[in-house]
Every structure is written in C-alpha cells, then in structure tokens.
C-alpha cells in the first residue's frame, strides 16, 4: 500500500446475540460457552456496511468506494451503489464490489489505500446447524477511510498467493464447506512464514507492538498467532470468522487501543497470505471511533436459536397468514433515490419548515421550489407516540411503528428496529438506521428505521 494512510475508521456489530448454550440444548450437543453475534432479519452485508461507513465518514470526503463481502445481497448488480446512495456520495465517486472470498477484504483495503478511498468490509456468515462455522462465525462490518493525514500509516506490506482447496461455497449455497482442517494448516503455515518474514524485513522491525492474525482456517490463525507474539498484544478476530470483514474488525480492535508510535503486524491468511505493518501516528488518540469494538461486543440482547434459524431461512416456519408485501418497483425507487436511500428531506428556505419526504410546495408558507436538501440519516430523534402492530407481515413480529421528532425539526413515522416493543416508550431517544423493510420477488426494499440509542 502506498500514498495514503488510515484517516478514520468505524465498525458495526449487530444488536442480537445467540447463546451457544441455546444451540447446544436445541441440537442435543455441546456447542461451547459464550454467544455469537448475529445480524437481524432486516440486516445484510449492505446495511451493515452503511452503518460502519457512516462512522468512518463522519468528517471526511472520498473519491472511491470499495465494498468487500462474501455474502452480497445481490448478484449481477453492484451492491456498493446502495452504500454509495445511503451515504449520499456524489455521482462522480467510483463504487465497486469485491465479492466472493475473504481475501476481498484485503483487496478493498489495498485499492482504497492506493487512491485515498473508502474500504467497506461486511459479511453475514451462515453455517449449517451445529457446525463449527455456525458456532465460530459472526456478523459485522468495518470501514476505513484513507487520506493524507492518517491516524495509522502503512509502512510495509507483503503478499503470497497459492491455489489449494481449503474452504469453498457453491454460488447458490447458504453455507460453505471446509476440507480437513489440518491440510489447510499445513498449507498456510509456510505462506504465513514467508509473508511475515518479508514484511518485517521491509519494515526493519524485529518485534511489533501488536500482532493480529485472521484466517478462514481457525486453527491456522490460532497457531500462527501463538508463534507471532507482540510486545503488547496478540489476538485473532474479535467475534470469530467474519468472512471479508475479518481483517477489518481485527484491525479496528487494535486501532481502538494502539498508542502513538506503536506498530501493528496484521496477517490475513486466505487463499495465500497478506501481511502489513502499520504504525499509529500522533492523531490516533483523537481519531479513534466513538464506540470501540470491545464495547459493541459486550453489549447486545439475546435472540433464540429458533428465531435466528428462521431469519436465515434454515428453519421454514409457517408464515404469517396475511398478504405478503409486493415487490418494490424500479422506476419509483429510482425517482426517490435520495429520499429512499439517503433519507434526504427538504427544508423551506423561507420559513425553515422541514418536509419529510421532500416536497416542492411548503406546507406552512406555500413557497414553491424554495427548498434546500436536509439529511436525516443517522440523526437522533425523540419518540412522540408509537403503536404495536401484531397483524402486519414480519419475520419478527410484532411490527412497531413510531412517530419521531428529529432534534433539528422534522417529523416522520418509522418502523422501529431490533424488536424493542417491550422497551419502547414515549420520550425514548432513537436514531435512524439503514435496514431492509422486506424482500419480495428477489428485490430488497431498503429504507430507514429507528433504533433505540
């Protein structure tokens, strides 16, 4: 990587956790201890990518966007364009997908670093019930904005590539397959050794302060991390294997704690091995993301294993006995793209009234075409009133609709995310979050919901 360093970063971990004990009890097997981070029914790699990117883009501009995932919401369509729209980026900003393998995360980082772009890494990992992938995976996203005034600079890099069959998934399969794990360990270890030796030599560093090793082959990652010790910390991925987002969440967790001048050896073994050395700059202490990965990981609310299986389509439960929503049509979505994806309303330049959705004629003073754009994306608001609808179609009933008043004017009715019917109250504080309202006919209806702060 050359030219730019990491100027800002952000991560997103979904709110729900499946207890491994619940998996074990359901399947009659020992599933271990702890919990697994899982995306909600209305989240996918695109929506999580938007959440992470919004944190990284809080105070910056970008010329290009690279989206890496092994679980794209669409094939034959660029998913990065939805992230581009939700961030309200200019049309001139290039946006492209890097999908299909965990190594796509490294590719996105390298591409963004070369030109001062934004790398967005997100995945929803699904394993067969009772599998190690299910227990040891996780869902999440990370985003990195590269620029000329970095909080961490890349000082060396090394890559080796090899073809062998360790982990794979057929294009239409929900879960993947892994060859006998020992075979992958034997193939990865010499690749890791070569990449690490090369990058340490290039950087002129004997022992880095922090070491992070990630790999779809969990045993290979653990063994390599055991042999590569840092002065201060050595770790693997913080929430288990996260596909293309593995390297991003692991790097973000170190940036959350690294001090100025400290070095980080970042190793990703996937279809080869990529190794990077980064050095934190003086800006690191004031450039960290607002909520560290460790805090996001320790929070969350439980969801039953049966509910989780239903969300992933693995458990085919009886659907609600009411009409399913219709497929969203392309023409109206295109006409309202700034409202639908970026939640952009309009403010009357005469009387300052905010209109949601945007309007040409002011409802208060009657001014015509005297409007300025105003974005409500990720804005805080207060619940004025709400209703709990137990009849509407949903994969996670009941549906909660709330009328919210935004802090800087504007009122709108939004669905409330993350199943908080038992915790919501008038006066509650919420913020907007990009989600799926529903999917029908192979089309995902993306819009914004409210979630408790």
Features:
Peroxisomal Thiolase, Chain A, domain 1; OB fold (Dihydrolipoamide Acetyltransferase, E2P); 25% helix; 453 residues; alpha+beta
Q: Can you give a write-up of this model?
A:
Residues 380-435 form the ChsH2 C-terminal OB-fold domain. InterPro entries: ChsH2_C, NA-bd_OB-fold, Thiolase-like. Pfam families: OB_ChsH2_C. The protein is α+β, with helices and mostly antiparallel strands. It has two domains: 5-311, Thiolase/Chalcone synthase (Peroxisomal Thiolase, Chain A, domain 1, 3-Layer(aba) Sandwich), CATH 3.40.47.10; 330-452, OB fold (Dihydrolipoamide Acetyltransferase, E2P) (Beta Barrel), CATH 2.40.50. Helix content is 25%, strand content 31%. It contains twelve helices and 23 strands. It has helices at residues 20-27, 45-56, 80-86, 104-115, 132-136, 181-203, 218-227, 246-255, 293-298, 305-311, 330-335, 337-342, and strands at 5-12, 16-19, 35-38, 64-69, 94-99, 118-124, 139-147, 152-161, 167-168, 177-178, 210-214, 233-235, 263-268, 272-280, 301-302, 344-348, 354-355, 371-375, 380-389, 399-406, 411-415, 429-440, 443-452. The strands form six sheets. Strands 1-7-6-4-5 form a five-stranded mixed beta sheet, with helices on both faces. Helix 2 (45-56) packs across helix 3 (80-86) and helix 6 (181-203) packs parallel to helix 7. The longest helix is centred in the middle third of the chain and has 23 residues, at 181-203. It is globular, with a radius of gyration of 22 Å. The model has no long low-confidence stretch (mean pLDDT 94).
CA-atom Rg in angstroms? 22 Å
Span of the ends, CA to CA: 37 Å
Mean pLDDT: 94
SS summary, helix count? 12
Assign the CATH architecture of the largest domain: 3-Layer(aba) Sandwich
Helix proportion of residues, in percent?
A: 10-25%
Task: Specify the overall morphology.
Answer: globular
Any idea of the CATH topology of the largest domain?
A: Peroxisomal Thiolase, Chain A, domain 1
Question: Uncertain runs with pLDDT below 50, 5 residues or more?
Answer: none
